[in-house]
Amino acid sequence: MAELKAPRGTIDRFPPYSERCEHVIKCFVDACRAHDYRIVHTPTFEDTRLFTRGVGESTDIVMKEMYSFKDKKGRDLSLRPEMTAGVIRALIEAGRRYTGQIEKLAYYGPMFRYDRPQKGRYREFFQVGIEAIGDTSPYLDVDVILLGWDYLLNLGIKPDDMVVIVNSIGDAEDRKTYLKILREHLKKVEDELCDDCKSRLDTNTLRVFDCKNPKCKELVSDAPRPLKHISSANREHFDIVIKMLESFGINYRIDEDIVRGLDYYTHTVFEVFPTGEEEASQGALLGGGRYDGLFATLSNGELDFPAVGFASGVERVLEAVDWDSQDKKAISELDFYVVILGDNAKSQAYKIVRKLQQWGFSADIDYRAGKLKSQFKRSEARNAKSIMIIGDDEINAGIVKFKPSKDKEIELSLSCFDMENPPDEIMSPP
RNA sequence: GUGGCUGUAGCUCAGCUGGUUAGAGCGCCAGGUUGUGGCCCUGGAGGCCGUGGGUUCGACUCCCAUCAGCCACCCCA
Predict the structure, then answer these.
(1) Which residues 271-310 on A are within 7 A of strand B at the CB atom?
(2) What is the distance between the alpha carbons of residues A242 and A238, in angstroms, rounded to a whole number?
(3) Is the CB of A357 under 7 A from strand B?
(4) What integer is the mean pLDDT of A218-236?
(5) Could you say which of A52, A252, A308, A402 is the most buried, measured as most Cβ atoms within 10 Å of its Cβ?
(6) Distance CA A318, CA A359 (A)
(7) Average confidence (pLDDT) over A409-430
(8) Does an H or E element contain A149, and which?
(9) Does A58 contact strand B, using a CB cutoff of 7 Å?
């Protein structure tokens, strides 16, 4: 066993896994293109204060999951645990001013959280996500949800196999009044709550709704819910979101208990689950919501733009995809495997490989040569679509032998050594 | 961060209550077949039994530590 190992919670990605990851990202990018969201890149590490202020001091992410370090000049930096705060910071820093246009941005890349690893949960993981900035319209919330939906559809996940769980937690004002009501309610039963919930009461009150402790569940079950205490304007916003989801035939369910653990969320919050797996701990395919106050928080109130977005964990989504049906799109295929017989065929064979590559095909050649049988076996291992055979006989005759893999009976002789363009036979094999 | 399960060949796993040279299937390589792949037969390579310490005449097996993976929490993607 090697003494040098990948650090805990990190993974090496080899084919075909690596290609499946790329495919998930590609399906995401395709959906972004359809909705006109364009790619943004921001640094993988940022000033630590960006996250303590943006994500929230009392969140688990900031309290115990950040990879924080000092650089050689003593600057406090952290590997990004999520990307929303970074994107907003970048926009503020770029001095963007919005004159009514909407900024629609998409991203993908590695994120870092010092969490205890499990399946679908890594310390370095890939996330894809979007941010739609500059409009309070509920239709933009819907656009964000639909983009996420389309991305999952692109991966071959059936509409009936997914469900959007939605809720609204209102704006900052709603939240302040609601939290007061909720705390008052919980104070009455404080002694009976579990230790976690007792500490949550003051720091992250909303999270009591997520407690799995049966006693807490019971006590919390008749607590007031945020959705019932938001302003009528905000309720109307939420109703439009619901109405639109309904009109598009999206599978959805309102769940008044979902609240999101990052401080910046406001109004609409949502998660998408595989149907029937809404309780699974790492089961959410994506999660997001509105964060209308984040600009103000990160710009000391100088700028104040509304925004909405989602993020999705690539390794988790990967688990929900039916790869038997997707692999032919995901895994890169080799068009030609060139088999050679005898050392003196190598240089001539390589000329054919070059031609194939320049004609736009993928082609590999087995320089180890050796027995035909071994070379054929290697071509199978690589799943090559066709085989070219080049030996002394072929060179003398000025031809190559061409065999499509799927029918071993077929063998054509092609004289393509001097051809400028690919012969018809390989463009449309028999 | 808390609690629990696991760690033997590239992969999936056997290895009984401690006892000689640690096994199987699949895969890989070679030969049967020195120019034609999926089958078959034969042979071969490959393990400090996760790592370090301890108990013992003797440890893959028991104890401790450590590392890693997984599960349930916590939380999130």
Answers:
(1) 271, 280-288
(2) 6
(3) no
(4) 88
(5) A308
(6) 33
(7) 86
(8) helix A138-154
(9) no
A8 touches strand B (CB under 7 A): yes
Reported as a single tens digit per residue, the pLDDT across A396-411 is: 899 999 999 888 889 9
Q: What pLDDT score was predicted for residue A87?
A: 96
Residue A304 (CA) to nucleotide B22 (C1'), in angstroms, measures 69
Q: How far is the CA of A253 from the C1' of B21 (A)?
A: 65
Q: How far, in Å, is the CA of A6 from the C1' of nucleotide B48?
A: 22
Higher per-residue pLDDT: A260 or A364: A364
Asked if A52 CB < 7 A from strand B, the reply is no
In what side-by-side order are the strands of the sheet with A162-168? A38-39, A103-112, A124-133, A307-313, A286-290, A266-274, A162-168, A252-254
Nucleotide B51 C1' to residue A64 CA (A): 28
Of A51-55, A100-104, A223-227, A401-405, where does mean pLDDT reach its minimum? A100-104
DSSP A206: G
CA A213 distance to own-chain centroid = 31
A2 — pLDDT class (breaks 50, 70, 90): low
Per the CB < 8 A criterion, the answer to whether A344 and A392 are in contact is: yes
Q: Does the domain formed by A333-427 have CATH 3.30.70.2580?
A: no
- Residue, of A226 and A37, whose pLDDT is higher: A37
Question: Is strand B in 7 Å reach of the CB of A152?
Answer: no
Q: Which amino acid is at A371?
A: K
Measure A80 CA to B53 C1' (Å): 39
Long-range contacts of A414-419 (CB under 8 A, 24+ apart): A416/A352, A416/A355, A417/A348, A417/A351, A417/A352, A419/A355
Residue environment code for A210-232, b if the CB has 16+ CB neighbours within 10 A, otherwise e: bbeeeebeebbeeeebbbebbee
Residue ranges of the domains in chain A? 17-171+230-325, 333-427
In this structure, are residues A124 and A111 in contact, taking their beta carbons and an 8 Å threshold?
A: yes
For domain A17-171+230-325, give the fold.
Answer: BirA Bifunctional Protein; domain 2 (3.30.930)
Question: Which of helix, strand or coil describes residue A407?
Answer: coil
Q: Which nucleotide is nearest to A200 (CA to C1')?
A: B74
Note the CA–C1' distance, A2 to B53, in angstroms. 20
Strand B: list positions under 7 Å from protein Cβ. Answer: 1-3, 28-31, 33-38, 48, 50-51, 67-77
CB proximity A12–strand B (7 Å threshold): no
